[in-house]
Amino acid sequence: MKRTLSLILLTIALGACSTQKPANDPALVGTWKGLRTQTDKCQFLSWTTHLKPDGRFTITFFRDVQQTQAIQTEQGTWSAVNGKNELRTDGVRMPDVYTYQLVDADTVRYVSVAAGPSGDCQEDYAFTERRLR
Fold first, then answer.
1. Which residues, in sequence order, are CB contacts of 17 under 8 Å at separation 6+?
2. Topology of 25-131 in CATH?
3. How far apart are alpha carbons 112 and 126 in whole angstroms?
4. Is 45 within 8 Å of 61 (Cβ atoms)?
5. What residues have CB less than 8 Å from 113, skipping those under 6 apart?
């Protein structure tokens, strides 16, 4: 009986270790600014993103480059590993998923892979964010 119980506990412990998520890419932690220029299909948009070490994020969207005319703020969880970044906005079922590449320590390039239903102008969407210091 003790041997069976020990085997069950060992199996649970090993299973818990293998299901832990890898740590988020620490190079992305911080505050970033991005913008989208106006096109035929999409309006101008700028934003500030805060990626926190605890896996939470906030993004505030603005109508202007100076970021004085806020549109809305979203928050949720983020995960980034192996060149893939996933943002899960609180209250939205589907995440926004991007591939990313660090251009340098203060510049990251994103390409949309999958967007949640709340995203606009997301098909074939690529953008660059720059770190704010």
1. none
2. Lipocalin (2.40.128)
3. 6
4. yes
5. 84, 97, 98, 99
Q: Which tokens in the block code for residue 73?
A: 């703020």
Report pTM.
Answer: 0.77
What's the rounded Cα separation, in Å, for the pair 47 and 101?
Answer: 19
| Of 93, 82, 22, 87, residue with least CA distance to 52 | 87
Q: How far is CA 44 from the centre of its chain?
A: 21
Using DSSP's 3-state secondary structure scheme, residue 85 falls into strand
Are 96 and 79 in contact by the 8 Å Cβ rule? The answer is no
Any idea where the domains of the chain sit in the sequence?
A: 25-131
Could you tell me which residues come within 8 angstroms of residue 52 by beta carbon, excluding any fewer than 6 positions away?
29
Query: What tens digit of pLDDT does each residue of 8-67 get?
Result: 544 454 444 445 556 899 999 999 999 988 887 788 999 999 999 999 999 999 999 999
Burial class from Cβ neighbours inside 10 Å (0-12, 13-18, 19+) for residue 126 reads exposed
Q: What DSSP character marks residue 87?
A: E
